[in-house]
Amino acid sequence: MALRDIIATIRGKSFGLDKNGNPVWNRVDGSQIVLEADLTTGAPKLRTTTSPRVGAAETLGVVALLPDGVGAVTRSSAFILGATGVAASRTSVNGAGDAVYQALYTFAVPGSLIGKNGRLTLVGALTATGSANTKAYCMKINGAIVSQELTSTAAPSTYDAHFELWNTGSETANEYIAGGVPNSSMTSLGTTTTAVDTTQTMTVTLEVKWTGAVSAETISLRHAHILIEPGA
Asked: Model confidence over 81-95: pLDDT tens digits?
């Protein structure tokens, strides 16, 4: 592989080192690129993985790779897994579809990244047309609602939507609760027990809707990120 091809592949990606000292680049889709020596020829090569495996010998903000087939999560430092500052929005059409959730942000969270006692947090900064109509925001994991918030305010406002899922001693036993939305009325599903299998890749979405047909209003996502706080 030519050097210019390697540079083109890794340009703009966050950088760190794995526990063997090999350079690793994290990509926005949750996968990684590692530059390492071929075990047979010794020649440098790029390897891509869609399931980051976390090692003990690492520094803050760096996901380290273990050999294929090894997947124990031992990381203790919180880190931002994915983020976007690219605006996304939806506009109401005064029809039944306004009351159907629509995703403004989607991210794949690799399996076994949270650990038995870890937590996943999704935070989104949103703006909405000011009105008495109720707007709803939710986090879904693999298509199922995991926490939601409802807001209504007459003035155009910016909301900080905050959703969490944490494991309770098992990677398949968890709880969730919605956070508050500043300067608005807020209801949530409360603290709820669920059984999301966090050993598998999870498709996490931040979705928005109105609770009924609304004429010419807009909900926009200004920024979103996913925070991982691993717990062995």
From this structure: 888 898 999 999 999
Q: Are 50 and 89 within one domain?
A: no
Pair 4, 93 in one domain: no
Q: In CATH, what number is assigned to the domain containing residue 168?
A: 2.60.120
pLDDT at 214 over 50: yes
Pair (108, 138) in one structural domain: yes
Cβ atoms of 228 and 52 within 8 Å: the answer is no
Cα angle value 165/212/180 (rounded, 5°): 35
Q: DSSP letter at 187?
A: B
Q: Which among 21-30, 188-197, 218-227 has the top mean pLDDT?
A: 218-227
For 198, the token pair is 């966090």
| Whole-model pTM over 0.90 | no
Q: What is the mean pLDDT of the chain?
A: 76
Residues 92 and 197 in one domain: yes
Q: Choose the final residue of a domain: 38, 72, 106.
A: 72
**What residue type is assigned to position 36 of the chain?**
E
Q: How far apart are CA 82 and CA 166, in angstroms?
A: 18
Q: Parallel, antiparallel, or unpaired for β 44-49 and 202-210? A: unpaired
Task: Note the pLDDT tens digit of each residue in 147-160.
Answer: 888 777 776 677 88
- Give the Cβ contact number of residue 137 at 10 Å: 27
Environment class of residue 42 by beta-carbon count within 10 Å: exposed (0-12), middle (13-18) or buried (19+)? exposed
Domain boundary among 28, 56, 72: 72
Domain that holds residue 178: 79-229
